[in-house]
# Entry
Amino acid sequence: MDVILTKDVDKIGLRGDVVSVARGYARNFLFPRKLAEEATPARVAELQKRDSNRTRQEAKTAEQAQSIAETLTKTVLRFEVKAGPTGSLFGSVTPTDIADEIWRTRKVRVDRRKIGVDNIKRIGRYDVPIDLFDGVRVEVKTLVAPEGGELPSDEELEAMEAAERAEQDAAAPVTAATAQVEYVDDAERALSPADAAMQGESPTQDEPATTDEPEWRADAEAALNDRDA
# Structure
């Protein structure tokens, strides 16, 4: 079914996009979380009109884009977001959030699809690239700080990110080792008696080992019997 996203959704689309998704996904996930609404003809027409008005406010020439670039070069965006002790956000700062903040602070309209950054998921300092026009690109300084706190220094941010990676790396080998042990145990249980014998294991009682005499021993005993006779 077609829905209109009311917020940016990872790997689905940006706010205001009309996207096609599975009906169950829409009803069980998107709608309950207020991430989307049904794409009725009236709502789609309303969005198209609004997007058209916004497009008229964007740069139409290289000169306009260059003027906007000069303004944005002097701009510093700041977002305060809930974050964990290692700096990971409880959520993310999206291209739509950045476009909205540029409009709120500078009354400059930029196409969120031309903001060259994925969802930001850690606190930190970022230079966000924006293509304003053909050949006109600007990087906007963006600060993502923990809610109610100050943004740590670059050294502290690096240490926090390294600590998070160490925790993840420490957890990953345990899972891999457990899976390897289970695989080896299953493989050993599946060994055939012949394979077990080749690996130095004793045959089971259900399948006793054979003790066939070599042919040369039988021939030698027959020759001795003939001589004694």
User: Anything to note?
Assistant: The domain at 1-56 is CATH 3.40.5.10 (Ribosomal Protein L9; domain 1). Residues 207-211 have pLDDT under 50 and may be disordered. The chain is about 45% helix and 20% strand.
